[in-house]
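Budget justification aside, the reviewers requested a transparent look at the raw inputs and outputs of the sequence design task funded under Objective 1. We therefore reproduce one unedited record. The lines immediately below are the structure tokens for a 362-residue chain.
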């Protein structure tokens, strides 16, 4: 009987393979990847595949969480209630993205507390872009336009990543990034319609953020040790340079429309390639920032460490609550029904306490 076309993706079913269980698992894995289907947490996967995913997803999650800081610094200084509400919502979305991504990493056996420890001890990376300062309100707009724009170019293909939980998390994240990009561009359009000073502020922010935004896509393909393996496993669908080119091609016409100049004298339309030629980012700067020596690395990590320590009581309270819930849910029926029959007795108040209370409520 023909299978009706429901428009849904085909299930991740692979041909059974002969041989040992491990061989069969490996054959199923290869078959699933070759058919461009999804690997799910329950499936066998090579250790390297798991480790690569944990590395990339954790870095991505950390980037969202650290990425709340540069714009978050402007929430109290937003120029109007409307701008404040928009910025608040955006920064909250970023926290949500971090949480989806930590959850996706947990499906691979990673522990969220351990990932956070690795971030604040400098043992795991986060995106270089969040190590630059936000000096004016125009930076909020330029981050939305460039940084979220770069995130969209990089992350829309990740919606088709071979690992199911990561790909599914990316669908929602990308929808929200798209809104973020528009709000940034809309803020800049408003500023460009404003005073000479506001226009200058936009241009100055564009000048500062352009090159670091191009670096978000990672080193050039020839210096990217992880790309080939990640692309063969279909975790990454495009190389760093391909995505960087897409971003440039998308952004140049937007800059023209805005009336801002991208700070690259080598930017030129290339008829043959049907794309924009552009200059070379300063790759030594990227390496410096990645290795912890960017303008704000120390401050960003220190602030994350403080927030983590300040939040210890919330985690302890949540864990205690969960333990109590679990205890109630797993208590033997007899105990549970006894406690249902005998509601907790309130201690009888002494007469003088009653009169004191009366006085209070009168
Ligand atoms: N910054 O071999 P590759 C956002 C590292 S979220 C820091 O090319 P790969 C939303 C790389 O990890 C932004 N480190 O590596 C938002 C590797 O180190 P390792 C984050 C970088 O993984 C907007 C080494 O260099 N997005 O913006 C960077 O194949 C506004 C060699 O590099 C994602 O994480 C860098 N720029 O490709 C939030 C997307 N580039 O681990 C708030 C998912 C490279 O070997 C406000 N990630 N490195 O020690 C990816 O697509 C990839 O991981 C790449 C790097 C493209 C970032």
């Amino acid at each position: 009987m023909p299978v009706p076309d429901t428009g849904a993706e085909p299930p991740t079913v692979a041909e059974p393979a002969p041989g040992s269980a491990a061989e069969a698992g490996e054959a199923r894995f290869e078959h699933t990847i070759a058919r461009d289907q999804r690997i799910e947490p329950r499936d066998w996967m090579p250790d390297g595949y798991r480790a690569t995913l944990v590395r990339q997803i954790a870095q991505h999650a950390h980037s969202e969480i650290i990425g709340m800081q540069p714009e978050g610094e402007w929430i109290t200084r937003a120029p109007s209630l409307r701008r404040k509400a928009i910025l608040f919502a955006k920064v909250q979305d970023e926290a949500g993205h971090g949480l989806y991504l930590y959850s996706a990493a947990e499906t691979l056996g990673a522990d969220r507390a351990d990932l956070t420890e690795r971030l604040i001890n400098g043992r795991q990376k986060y995106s270089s872009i969040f190590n630059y300062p936000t000096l004016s309100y125009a930076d909020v707009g330029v981050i939305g336009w460039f940084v979220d724009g770069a995130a969209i170019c990089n992350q829309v293909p990740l919606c088709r990543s071979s690992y199911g939980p990561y790909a599914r998390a990316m669908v929602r994240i990308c929808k929200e990034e798209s809104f973020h990009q528009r709000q940034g561009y809309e803020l800049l359009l408003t500023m460009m319609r404003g005073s000479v000073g506001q226009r200058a502020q936009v241009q100055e922010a564009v000048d500062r953020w352009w090159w670091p935004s191009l670096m978000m896509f990672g080193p050039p393909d020839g210096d990217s040790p992880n790309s080939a393996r990640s692309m063969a496993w279909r975790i990454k669908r495009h190389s760093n340079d391909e995505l960087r080119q897409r971003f440039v091609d998308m952004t140049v016409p937007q800059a023209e429309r805005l009336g801002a100049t991208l700070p690259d004298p080598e930017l030129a339309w290339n008829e043959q390639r049907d794309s924009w030629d552009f200059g070379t980012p300063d790759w030594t700067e990227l390496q410096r920032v990645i290795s912890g020596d960017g303008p704000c690395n120390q401050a960003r990590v220190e602030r994350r460490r403080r927030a983590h320590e300040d939040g210890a009581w919330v985690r302890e309270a949540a864990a205690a609550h969960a333990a109590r819930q679990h205890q109630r849910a797993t208590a033997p029926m007899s105990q549970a029904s006894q406690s249902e029959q005998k509601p907790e007795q309130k201690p009888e108040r002494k007469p003088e306490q009653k009169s004191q209370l009366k006085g209070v409520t009168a």
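The two ends are 78 Å apart (CA to CA). The longest strand covers residues 268-270. Computational costs for records of this kind are itemized in the attached budget.
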